[in-house]
Write a structure and sequence with these properties.
Length: 216
């Protein structure tokens, strides 16, 4: 099925390669500027292609952001599924499981800060249904699986409502991580090392769950 923001979905390897170059170029530019000031001309220049090639694939600049959003969530869901389906990881003690989830989130968001800042703003300021639906899908489909895995260790959780604690604690971890990674560079503070960020977010989540046996 052709996605609504494409004129033509690439059928040949060379055309797909050009598409990926355009998306990669836009993602790199968004690391240093916002989406509103990004221009198609600078995207195609950085991608080493032409304006005609751009419009052969996208209806407009808004469609480019839609494609970046779709690509991010496809890659994100693939990474999450790989982790959640790993039997070795699922068998680990709860602190290791939470560390794995947190590490995946931090690594994913660290790699695409510019794109995610743009998507975050677009979804909230313009209430674009496509952006909102993809984020809702992540919470609707992926989070319950995380919750189920953590609930398998409910005997280690001393919060009076383990199910509520997992959801609320995960939201604190996720939104805290997102705020720090996407917006911290705009503040005059030292940036957290990724390992430090993972350790502290994990510690906070486990503390909220009231995990008393930190070694499992």
């Amino acid at each position: 099925m052709t996605l609504p923001f494409f004129f033509n979905k690439p059928q040949q390897a060379r055309s797909q390669e050009t598409l990926e170059r355009i998306l990669d170029a836009a993602a790199q530019i968004l690391e240093t500027k916002n989406f509103e000031t990004l221009t198609i001309a600078e995207v195609v220049k950085k991608a080493g292609t032409s304006v005609g090639a751009f419009y052969g694939r996208f209806k407009d600049k808004e469609a480019l952001l839609q494609a970046l959003d779709e690509r991010f969530f496809i890659e994100f869901e693939r990474s999450v599924n790989y982790l959640l389906e790993s039997p070795d990881w699922r068998a680990e003690p709860l602190p290791i499981i939470v560390t794995g989830i947190c590490s995946l989130l931090v690594e994913t968001y660290s790699q695409q800060k510019g794109v995610l800042r743009s998507l975050n703003l677009k979804g909230r300021l313009d209430f674009e249904p496509q952006f909102m639906e993809r984020e809702q899908r992540a919470w609707r489909v992926l989070f319950p699986r995380v919750q189920e895995i953590v609930l398998n260790h409910r005997d280690k959780i001393h919060h009076p409502d383990p199910r509520l604690a997992i959801r609320f604690g995960f939201q604190q971890m996720f939104y805290g991580m997102r705020e720090i990674l996407l917006w911290e560079p705009y503040r005059e503070e030292d940036l957290y090392d990724k390992a430090v960020l993972v350790n502290e977010l994990t510690r906070a989540f486990l503390a909220y769950l009231e995990i008393k046996e930190v070694n499992g």
